[in-house]
Amino acid sequence: MKSMSTTPLSSVSSGKQVHIVSIEAGWGLQRRLTDMGLTPGLKITVIRSQKSGSVVLDVRGSRLALGRGISHKIMVRTPDN
Fold it and tell me: What is the CATH classification number for the domain harbouring 32?
């Protein structure tokens, strides 16, 4: 069985597709992100991610911008090839 390595969303390069594995935050932030459609298992594309500033995502055909601190709490993995 392969081990699943995860990384924070804030460290993913622009143009990459990833799957959300978990959200490592308090219940309030977890609920807010869930209400925005960010749930474990969801496949998203990082449109823009730079060293500073927000992370822009393609989530189910819509663009969503998250602050760097929030994006650091979302753990993701690259799709299996």
Answer: 2.30.30.90
